[in-house]
Amino acid sequence: MNSTETAWHILNEVMDPELPEISIVDLGMVRSVLLNEDLLHVVITPTFSGCPAKETILSDIKSSLSNHFSNVCLEVSLSPPWDVNDIKKTAYQKLKNIGIAPPVSDEKSISCPRCNSLQVSCLSVFGSASCKSLYKCRSCLEPFEYFKSIGKLRE
Amino acid sequence: MLNAQIAKYILFIADNNFIFSHRLAEICGHGPMLEEDIALSNISLDLLGQANLFYELAGELLDKTADDLVYYREATEFYNFSLLELPHKDYSHTQLVIFWYSIFYSLLLEELKKSTNNRISEISSKAILEVNNHIQHSKKWVKIFLNGTDESKARIKSSFASLLPYLLNCFSQVHIENALLDNGIVCQPSSLKDKFFKKIDNAIIAFTETDINSYAIPINNYAGEHTEYLGYILAECQSLAREFPNSKW
After folding, report:
1. Which side of chain B, N or C, has fewer Cβ within a 10 Å radius?
2. Model ipTM value
3. What is the pTM of this model?
């Protein structure tokens, strides 16, 4: 029996093409999932305006859901705008595992995802992808990425 | 009638972003170092994404697609500021334009967040989160030039002097119809002048001998007037679409 739980489970398997192991649900891109009779209504919010992965993600969502639901309506909503607070806290360890320091509320507490040192320097607020800033650890000397601050993380 | 006026204003915002995004993309592969190549490409991409959102909105009002608006309008139908058409001279010039435009754009977006037009308001609320990073990056560079060597100081001062007439032009044109202003839909750029210069450090204004009441270059971009540079930009970016109309990747 297909339900919203099934839909959420499927959406949990749709990965961000640029962040291995991180799903669109982890990123907080899925605003709502409603099932009305046989119409599945999913509301998605884009992360970055210029994200080159946006089209790919939308078509991945559509095709994954269409395998289980005959009637899928995918709505893209800009309001409220996506910001770092939408990233699930449960995804923070997953980000660290792939070498990306998760968002923090105070920039002084950014730590190296490899050695946890706080002796870090920002090389550039712009990194290899729309969602990443480039940092360097002065302790283990490895570069790493920080999830770019869009909006301010609430405590 | 009101819709046509709103659409024109939205095109003005979209055109600023699109044309500047194009200019910034030209740096890709030619930046002073790899991190700057990446940074400017990212800024260009952010602006392109935001331009797309605004073009789609304008398209709904004009019954056209974003592609129609970008590839099939002539130069006299674009409304972007001439400041953003200018070709790169040196890196102080490039970073100064990013610095000025991002501050102006963020002040504009702050006002447009309160627009009575829901769609303008929601796109603006999203865009401003990204533009804050553009300000952060370019401010860092302007300060590096100002506090650097004799050469960097000379270059940034020279960039200020040559670009100031174009910046002041941004605040002296774009006369919006009263209907749009009275209905709280849009924001008059000239109303942002004081706030804009308050955001620029007084020390910078003094050091560069900026006179905020000096000569503003009299080009009426909002009436479709532009420098000749726009012609070359459009010839380049529209050529493929026009040669193969309706093609898809």
Report:
1. C
2. 0.89
3. 0.93
